[in-house]
Each structure stands twice: as C-alpha cells, then as structure tokens.
Amino acid sequence: MIFDLDGTLFQTETLLLPAYHATFEQLRAEGLYEGETPPEQAILSCLGMLLEHIWQNVMPESDVQAHRRADELLLKFQEEGLARGEGQLYDGVAEALRKLREQGVRLFIASNGLEAYVKGVIRLKGLEPLFEPDGLYSAGEHQTRSKVDLVRMLLDKHGISSAWMVGDRSSDVEAGHANGLFVVGCDYAGFRKAGELDQADVRIASFEQLVELLP
Asked: Carries keyword Hydrolase (predicted)?
C-alpha cells in the first residue's frame, strides 16, 4: 500500500496552521510580504499540491524569491512544531498500520511535500519502523513534477507490480489509476473540492476501515 501523508495519515492543519501564521509574520519582518496573512482556507485548499503551486495560489502577487523563502520558513516552523510534539495523526492510523504490517502488507509513502517534512512526521510520530526501508518518497527529494511520476518511480525501484494507492486528493486518484493501482479515497479530511474522489475505486470514512477492505 502506498499512502499519501497530509489528509490521509496526518491531520496536517494541527501542525500547519501555527507554522503558516509564523511564516507570514517572518515574511513581513523580512520585507518579502505586505498586508494581512491570507485566510487559512487558502492553504488548506491547496494541500496535496506541489509547494510551488501552493504559493502561486496563496500569494500570487509575490515573486519567486518570496515563494522560496516561504518554503524554507514553513518547513522550519513545522519541524520546530514537530520537535515540540505538535501535530496529530488521524484516529486509528498507528494501530491500523500495525495490523496491515502484521498481515504482510508492505507500506510506503508518496507525498508531494518536502523530504525533511515527510520523513520528520513519520519519524517523530513513531511510524518509521512500520514502513519499508527507503519507502518514504517525496516530491521534494526526488524532484518529480507530479505524483503520477513519483508513484511510478516508487513502483519501479521496489519491483512492485500490484499495490493500492490510498489518499484524499484527486492527485492520489490520478497517480493510482495512471499506474494501474486500486485506489482508496480517504473521505474524512475535508480539504478536497467536491468530486475529487469520485473516480476512486472505494471510499472510506475513517482510516480504520482500510483494514476491513483486505480480502
């Protein structure tokens, strides 16, 4: 099984939103942004996108220098929050992942996030031993232009011919089906737009339901 991270395993807003506000405070202090911080919904609605696309949506009037600095600051503040124990997994995630491993399922991550963020969340939330060695794939590390490419790279490198893609956004559905995978849509985060999971093979209303789907 290949999992998205934000909105699938991790309640992103519990870590993201404090870091988001701190990022804009620092951008203003450095003269890279003026005005009020964009509404929280601006970034929440972009979760699952590549970072460059997120900032193009959140602050389209700012230049590339400001966008790249926002990358650095958001990661910094999120890492500091993780180190303080901030951020929550969705209910039942750790236990369900353990059950999947006990049943012999190999577990991977495919996320459009930055490498340090993706690996930091998995490590600091105690999930690292449950995933395959070198099984945490991020667009930040591999510089892929889409999740389709990231998942294809993962499948090729690990010699996988059959897998499930589990995620909450249309990019997860696309990545799964483009690579011939069974797609499980996670219908509990609330970040997506209407219809994003319509093409998923099955939808779940809580993470624990994933274990029940296994034959």
From this structure: yes
